[in-house]
Amino acid sequence: MTTDLLDLESLLTDEERAVRARVRALVDREIRPHIADWFERAHFPRELVPKLAAEGLLGMHITGYGCAGRSSVEYGIAMQELEAGDSGIRTFVSVQGSLAMSAVAKHGSEEQKQAWLPRMAAGEAIGCFGLTEPNAGSDPGAMQTFARRDGDDWVIDGAKRWIGLASIADVAVIWAQTEEGVRGFLVETSTPGFTATPIEPKLSMRASIQCDIALEGVRVPESARLPEARGLRAPFECLNEARFGIAWGALGAGRDALETALAYAGEREVFGRPLAGMQLTQARLAEMALSLQQAQLLALHLGRRKDAGGLRPHEISMGKLASCRTAIDICREARAILGGNGVSLEHSPMRHAANLESVRTYEGTDEVHTLVIGQALTGLAAFRG
Ligand SMILES: Cc1cc2nc3c(=O)[nH]c(=O)nc-3n(C[C@H](O)[C@H](O)[C@H](O)COP(=O)(O)OP(=O)(O)OC[C@H]3O[C@@H](n4cnc5c(N)ncnc54)[C@H](O)[C@@H]3O)c2cc1C
C-alpha cells in the first residue's frame, strides 16, 4: 500500500530512485530486524558504520577526498530512508557527514582535508561536533569554552554537552571563544585533558550516543585550527547542512509510522469490522497522508533549490520546522491507532515519536526556527525578546 498519493515519485530521476532503493534495502536488511533491541538496550551498533560507509553515505554530499559527491536531493532521499529505520542511525550519519566532515570540508586546510576526510568517508575515523554547552544551546554566542594562544599552541578549557558520538570519536570539532572571536579546532580525542562521558539514561535517541565533554587544558598545535572558520557563521554553515538533512529525514520516521498504522488498521478488527474501514480512522489516516506529502513536497523543493545553489537559511528553517512538526504529529496519531499495542517496542511509531523529541530540539529548536522565519518576514530579530 503506497502513501505516495500525489505520485511524488514521478518527480525523481532514475538515479534518485536508485539511491532510494539501495538505502531502503540497507535499512530493511541491517536496521529493521535489530532496531527494537538496540533501542531497548541503548546500544549504538558500531558494526553498522562500515556498511553505511560502503554505501557511500558518510559525507555523501561532499565531493572528492573519497566522498560520494552526491546531489542534495540524493542526500535528502538517503536521510529519509535511514530515518524510516531510526532517527538515531540517521543522526550518526548527520553528525559524521553533515557536521564533522562538513566542518573540515568547508573550513579546513588542504592538509586537514587529506588527513581526515578519506578516513571519515570510509568509516575508519569517527568525528563529532562540539558546539552546545551546558549553559549555551540555542544561543551559541554565549559559549564559555575558551582557547588561548600559548606560543605556537592553543590551550582549550571548557565544557560541551549533548555532543553526538563524542565517546567513540577519533576527532572532535570543538568551537571555542578566542581573543579573535569564535574559532574551530580539530581535537584528537586522545589528547590529554579531553574526556567524553555518555549521557544516560535517555528517553529518546536510545540507539545513538550523546556525551558531556570536559576540556581541561587541552593543548593543540596551530595546525589543528580550522583556518577558514571565523566567527559563529562557520558552525552555522555546518548546521545548515544538517538541518537540510533533517527536513528530509524526519519525514522518513513519519512515513514509517503512517505505513505501520495503515497495515495495523487493515488487519485489526474493532466492533466486528476492520479498523481501517471506520470513518474516524480514515479521517486520521487521510490527515497524516496529506501532511506527510505536503512536507515531502517542501523537502523536494528545498533540495532542488539547494542543488541549483539558491537555498537561503530561512528556507531551511521552514523545512526543518515543518518536517519535525509533521513527523511527530503523524507518529503520535499512528501510536494512537495501534491502541495498547502502540506502546510496545514491537511497533515503530512511539519509538519514532520519542526520537523526534530530540530531532525537533537539536539543530535549532522549533522556537528558534520560528524566530528565523519571523525575522525573514519582518526584518526584525526577536531572539532577545
Ligand atoms: C539527542 C541530541 C543530540 C544532540 N547532538 C548535538 C551535537 O552533536 N552537537 C552539539 O553541539 N549539540 C547537540 N545537541 C544539542 C542541541 O543542539 C541543543 O539541545 C539545542 O540547541 C537546544 O539547546 P538547549 O538544550 O541548551 O536548550 P535551550 O537553548 O536552553 O532552550 C530551552 C527552551 O527555550 C527555548 N528558547 C530558546 N531561545 C528562545 C527564544 N529566544 N525565545 C523563546 N524560546 C526560546 C527553546 O526553544 C527551548 O524550548 C544535541 C541535543 C540532543 C537532545
From TrEMBL:
<feature type="domain" description="Acyl-CoA oxidase/dehydrogenase middle">
    <location>
        <begin position="128"/>
        <end position="218"/>
    </location>
</feature>
<dbReference type="InterPro" id="IPR037069">
    <property type="entry name" value="AcylCoA_DH/ox_N_sf"/>
</dbReference>
<feature type="domain" description="Acyl-CoA dehydrogenase/oxidase C-terminal">
    <location>
        <begin position="230"/>
        <end position="377"/>
    </location>
</feature>
<comment type="pathway">
    <text>Amino-acid metabolism; tryptophan metabolism.</text>
</comment>
<dbReference type="Pfam" id="PF02771">
    <property type="entry name" value="Acyl-CoA_dh_N"/>
</dbReference>
<keyword id="KW-0560">Oxidoreductase</keyword>
<dbReference type="InterPro" id="IPR036250">
    <property type="entry name" value="AcylCo_DH-like_C"/>
</dbReference>
<dbReference type="InterPro" id="IPR009100">
    <property type="entry name" value="AcylCoA_DH/oxidase_NM_dom_sf"/>
</dbReference>
<dbReference type="InterPro" id="IPR013786">
    <property type="entry name" value="AcylCoA_DH/ox_N"/>
</dbReference>
<feature type="domain" description="Acyl-CoA dehydrogenase/oxidase N-terminal">
    <location>
        <begin position="13"/>
        <end position="124"/>
    </location>
</feature>
<dbReference type="InterPro" id="IPR009075">
    <property type="entry name" value="AcylCo_DH/oxidase_C"/>
</dbReference>
<dbReference type="InterPro" id="IPR006091">
    <property type="entry name" value="Acyl-CoA_Oxase/DH_mid-dom"/>
</dbReference>
<keyword id="KW-0285">Flavoprotein</keyword>
<dbReference type="InterPro" id="IPR046373">
    <property type="entry name" value="Acyl-CoA_Oxase/DH_mid-dom_sf"/>
</dbReference>
<comment type="similarity">
    <text>Belongs to the acyl-CoA dehydrogenase family.</text>
</comment>
<dbReference type="GO" id="GO:0000062">
    <property type="term" value="F:fatty-acyl-CoA binding"/>
</dbReference>
<dbReference type="InterPro" id="IPR052033">
    <property type="entry name" value="Glutaryl-CoA_DH_mitochondrial"/>
</dbReference>
<dbReference type="GO" id="GO:0033539">
    <property type="term" value="P:fatty acid beta-oxidation using acyl-CoA dehydrogenase"/>
</dbReference>
<keyword id="KW-0274">FAD</keyword>
<protein>
    <recommendedName>
        <fullName>glutaryl-CoA dehydrogenase (ETF)</fullName>
        <ecNumber>1.3.8.6</ecNumber>
    </recommendedName>
</protein>
<dbReference type="Pfam" id="PF02770">
    <property type="entry name" value="Acyl-CoA_dh_M"/>
</dbReference>
<dbReference type="InterPro" id="IPR006089">
    <property type="entry name" value="Acyl-CoA_DH_CS"/>
</dbReference>
<dbReference type="GO" id="GO:0046949">
    <property type="term" value="P:fatty-acyl-CoA biosynthetic process"/>
</dbReference>
<keyword id="KW-0809">Transit peptide</keyword>
<dbReference type="GO" id="GO:0004361">
    <property type="term" value="F:glutaryl-CoA dehydrogenase activity"/>
</dbReference>
<dbReference type="GO" id="GO:0050660">
    <property type="term" value="F:flavin adenine dinucleotide binding"/>
</dbReference>
<comment type="pathway">
    <text>Amino-acid metabolism; lysine degradation.</text>
</comment>
<dbReference type="Pfam" id="PF00441">
    <property type="entry name" value="Acyl-CoA_dh_1"/>
</dbReference>
